[in-house]
Structure formats: structure tokens, C-alpha cells
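Troubleshooting log. The previous structure file for this entry was overwritten by mistake, so regenerating from the original sequence record. Sequence copied from the archived sheet and checked twice against the printout by T.R.
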Amino acid sequence: MNEPQRPIFIQSSPPGAEFEITNKKGLPVHEGRTPEWVILDSSDGYFSGEHYDILFKSGDIMLGQAALKSKVSRWYFANLLFAQAGVAAMIVFDPLTGGMFRLPNTLNVSLDVGALEGDMPVSKPGEVVSRKAFSGPSNYVALPKSNWYISAEYGAEHIDVSSDFSSRRDVEGSVLNLGGAVGYRFDSNVVVQVGFVVSFNPGLFSESDRYSLERVDSVVGYAFDFGRLSVVPQLGVSAWDFSLDEGAFLNSGDAEMLRDQGKDIFGRLNVEYLFFKGIASYMNLQHASYDFGKSTSVNLGLKLKL
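Regenerated output below.
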């Protein structure tokens, strides 16, 4: 399993370089000389992975630069195997303890030894060479900014009510969806969201079956970015309230009025496209199994960064 603190072996080619490590807040956390083992935190807060900048030098001469960025551990997604207990671990335990993130085991950096021959600027006493002016061998990737967002969506849902819930027959039908949500995307690409969805069909002059499904959804997901396109698999818990009023059409007996409520786990896949800065459209596919039956929905929506 993943540990919130991790030993990392830092080495350079050639060895013997001095190095200093700062976290993403710009605070120094360690100074040493390669090769050396260091212990670093994988997380710096709830749902927030840590990021480190490492500068290599010889005296006042800058030799290289590298970055260590924590990633979501594959063990974190193993929580999906443990149903509701797993969801609790994904939303509460692992994010709080830092166990959802991991850092690499080793870092090996090839240094620009030509700087020792005067190819790189040397800082004068009391002067610091700008990190921004240095272009070294590191593969530094800028982190996406954390941000709040709101979304609104509409779509269609197919509901299949089991005969265990409706005493006489299997019932199925289509409903319209209207919903909205507020969420937060962390710099680790983890997404958390709370939203509501109202699903209904108007019926046909009270002759056909009428369905109503109201949900409040709590969701956690992870965004895989491909330029302007993002794919976001999500897992959530839905608190729902379902009603079915049977109509007279194709119903030879007395009409039933059925009600039920509960909480269930569902899966969702979001595909998002960023049109402008802070504005994205998306489509999602969701499948859920409830006490009363199953449902599958497809929705279109807009997401606005706050």
C-alpha cells in the first residue's frame, strides 16, 4: 500500500553535486549532496499532492534543475473493490492521510558540467541566479491550477424497474434529466463534486406510467488531460427518491403508486472539451443500480470556472 512519506534516492551524473529541495509553496525542505536518500511527504493537504523543485549546484554555479511531482497511487483506485467502505476511503481516509498519492522511488539527473567552465552565469556574493533564466535537462510540467466550478446539464435516462419493486410486471421507460453541480479540481487532477439531478416524464393525459427520480450525488473522479480534451472517470454515492405512478394504458388492473428511497453507488464517465478559458462543454454516460432497478443516462452540459 502507499505511504504518506516516501524515501527517494537522489543521484546525479556526475555525482557529488550539492542540491536543495523546495516544496510547491517555495519553502526549503532539504539540502544535501548526491547521491543521498531523502524522505519527502507525498501530500500537502486534503486531496492535494505535493510538488518539489530540486536545484543542483557546485558552489554558486547552477548545474541543473529537476522536479518531483506526486501522482495518484494505483492503490487508491483499488478502493473501488470495497463498495461503500471503499468510497469512504476514497473521499475521507486516503485524502486526509496522504495515502492516495505517491512519489517516484528515484531521481537521476544528468548535470551540465559545462557550467563549471563558465558556460552558466555565476552568482555574485549576495546575488541569486534566477531559476527562470535556467534551462536545464529537467522535464518540468506546469501544474494545472486548482479551481472551483459550477455545471448545468440536461439529457435522457432509461429506467428499468424490476418486478420485485412493481409487483405485477417489469416496468421500463424514458425520462428527461435536469441537473446542476458545484465541484473543485485539485492540482493533482482529482475532482470532487456535489450535485443534484431531477428526472421525470410528463405522462400522457394521466394514461401512461409516470416516473420521478430525484438524486443528490457526491462524486470523486480523476481527470486525464489530452490538450483541450479531458476524460474523467468518476465514482459516486447517490441519495435518491423514486416514485412510479402507473397509468391505465396497457394496465388491466388497478393503478399502483409506488415510492422508494435510499442510497446507492454509481459510475460515470465524463468527456470534457475546453472551448475558452474557464468554459467547457461535456458529455457523460452514467450507469446505476438502485434498489428499485437500474438506469442508464446520457447527458450534455456546460461547465463554468468560478
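The chain has two domains: 5-117, 147-305. Archived copy saved in two places this time.
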